[in-house]
Amino acid sequence: MVLGLAANETINVAGTLIDRLSGEYERWQEQIGNLQNELDCLEKGSLLSAAFVTFLGSESEQVRNEILNKWKGLLNLNNFSTLEFCVMETEKLNWSNRGLPTDALSQENAMILFNTTEIPLIIDPSGRASSFLMKHLKDKQVEKVNANDSNFLIQVELAVRFGKLLLIDDKSSDI
């Protein structure tokens, strides 16, 4: 009799476990579908993101959006986000903690900045981008120099020679 009670209890626990796991199965199936959709868009998304970083970094927000929407239409990726594709949420949180504004344009600019091989020209009248970059790149020993400094050329030469990062600040109104 004691054995029968233990067996019944085991059967009840197993039934409860199966009921609870049925919801997990549905969730896993949904995740499989989502991953399959992402995999299907991987090549086109990579192409679109690479083109965005390569060709649209110097364009205004309006021009970027117009061209990007045209490209999305051609590739049939109308709901695609280059920012979501290229940057993980944790990286965006790190950027925010280091002072980068959370608007889409600022985050797209950071995405372009960190994924290009070009030397960027950043027009930053508020100084927020400069402050963000100094915090974000502090482990890489970035040196901030002024373009009007008498030692400017020497600092650039030393940076090139020793592989240092320079943030060149030019507050002149000649631009």
Features of the shown structure:
175 residues; mainly alpha; two-stranded parallel ribbon
Structural class label: mainly alpha
Percent helix: 55-70%
Low-confidence stretches: none
User: Residue-averaged pLDDT, rounded?
Assistant: 88
Biggest β-sheet, characterized? 2 strands, parallel
β content, as a range? under 5%
**Large-scale geometry:** elongated
DSSP summary, beta strand count: 2
From the alpha carbons, calculate the radius of gyration and give it in angstroms.
Answer: 26 Å
Provide the spatial order of strands within the biggest beta sheet: 1-2
Pattern of helices and strands:
HHHHHHEHE
**How many H/I helical runs?**
7
Cα end-to-end separation? 92 Å
Ordered list of secondary-structure elements with their pairings:
Layout: H1 2-55, H2 61-75, H3 82-86, H4 89-97, H5 104-114, H6 128-136, E1 143-146, H7 152-162, E2 166-169
Parallel strand pairs: 1-2
How would you describe this structure to a colleague?
GO terms for molecular function: dynein intermediate chain binding; dynein light intermediate chain binding. The chain has 175 residues and is mainly alpha-helical. 65% of the residues lie in helices and 5% in strands. It has seven helices and two strands, in the order ααααααβαβ. The chain has helices at 2-55, 61-75, 82-86, 89-97, 104-114, 128-136, 152-162, and strands spanning 143-146, 166-169. A two-stranded parallel sheet has the order 1-2. Strand 1, helix 7 and strand 2 (166-169) form a beta-alpha-beta unit. The N and C termini lie far apart (92 Å).
